[in-house]
Amino acid sequence: MMPGVAALFDCLPADWRDGLFLGRIETPQGPSPIMVAGGTAYDMSRIAPTVAQLVEKLPVSPDAGENLGPLDQLDLPLLSPVDLQCVKACGVTFALSAIERVIEERARGDAAAAAEIRGRLEERVGGSIRAVSPGSPEAAALKAALIEDGLWSQYLEVAIGPDAEVFTKAPVLSTVGPGAEIGIRSDSTWNNPEPEIVLLVSATGKTVGATLGNDVNLRDFEGRSALLLGKAKDNNASCSLGPLVRLFDDSFTIDDVRNAEVELTIDGPEGYRLEGTSSMNQISRDPLDLVRQTLSEHQYPDGFALFLGTLFAPVQDRDEPGRGFTHKVGDIVAISTPRLGKLVNRVVTSKDAAPWTHGLTAFMTNLAARGLLNAQEKEPA
């Protein structure tokens, strides 16, 4: 384990012995899907060699797999908890934050001017900006008012318009897990983590659980042009997930996602510390509506993971007053919420992060060599 990265036990959910979880481990033979129930880990590779296949078999009894013992005593590293799933992400899902940022920019830091602009907009809309629902008649009225005031932007279109921003964050098998290094481009000078909750969705469109994710973002690239979103979002080691997917059951539901408080800490090598929170109850589009929009005219035969967006935008100065925040190599980023645990990664450049070499060909070759693709599957208990 790299210096400064928390031990597995410190990253588990507060009630990890009670919930039902899904994940992946690195065994000496290769990656294997696991389930965790009652605090015990089970290797499920003989039941389903991939997480994508295991999701399609749910509900399945964990003890149909190989008992690996207590999770907190597991000496095999956790990988990103997804494998063949497509990794999708939603942006600008906290409309109030986006609108307020536009207002603040127009007001140039003058609180009284910001209040005047806000009041003028709300008078035209006929209600509070906070209550505006994306795609509603009130949102259309707000859009007209913003355009009239010269405040409209492409970001506000996806914040309050009918269509959510949904993009592909990372190639299949390229995500990194807890304890791994996360990468920022070596030519980026303004970047930040994005602490988010990530939903796991089956091939049939059923939302089966949730985990934590870091949707690493390069603000300088995306700020220059929205057409640089690919370079801003998809680089080597630029997407982390984990530590485990918590499966929905009677004790953990989509409402726990809707009401989660996602906390972020960044500890820099020079002693710098930043803390922040993303409150999911302020999201403008319901998580299940984001799933619906992702599926509207697309199929995902291996399922997908969906980042839900974040309210957090770091503005705390790091080096020079007024320059705000940007990462430094060696930063330790921790994203946490009690029911999902803690995702901890250390920042390096994408060039220096471990290269992504285990793609689909290598993955399938490994499964075949282990006899998992042709193994007689056991019937779930």
UniProtKB/TrEMBL annotation:
Coiled coil: none
Sorted UniProt keywords: Hydrolase, Metal-binding
InterPro entries for the chain: FAH (IPR051121), Fumarylacetoacetase-like_C (IPR011234), Fumarylacetoacetase_C_sf (IPR036663)
GO biological process, one term: small molecule metabolic process
MF term (GO), any: metal ion binding
Pfam families, sorted: FAA_hydrolase
Fumarylacetoacetase-like C-terminal domain span: 163-348
Family: Belongs to the FAH family.
Name the record gives this protein: Fumarylacetoacetate hydrolase
Species of origin: Sphingobium amiense
